[in-house]
Task: structure prediction
Amino acid sequence: MTINKAGLDLIKQFEGFRARTYDDGVGVLTIGYGTTGKAGVGINPIWGMTITEFEAEIYLQRAIDKFWDQIKNHIGVPINENEKAAFISLAYNIGPNAFKRSSALRFFNEGNKKKAADAILMWNKGGGKVMKGLVRRRKAERKLFLKPVPKVKHNPLPWWLLRLMGK
Result:
């Protein structure tokens, strides 16, 4: 999976599921979890169209994978799972090309994670106006970006040998 559960849940929470096409607030026809025809993931929403939540999740995962493929080569320093998830959520919402030009990416690549996190907050406008939903989303993305990823202990011994050893 391209994105961790926290990132997927964040996108789903803020996009919300809608089975029927709708105007996203700035004149773009959208369906499912914020999927547009411009995403190029196999659906071109038209007025009156409906999809199931299962179909919406397929299009969402396709878009996440596609957008990650478009931005990953522009990330020039190590990235943890929460930083990656926050950046995918941002790119999903603003588009991969805007993300690639963002100060959030530039600061991250310069090694300044704090400035990168703060720069996420700048993407709070739709149609030139500050939108409350985008303000909330950017705060959630920033919070996820800054959340430490727990270290997972990995035992190099195979499970069956550990079992024989009583561990």
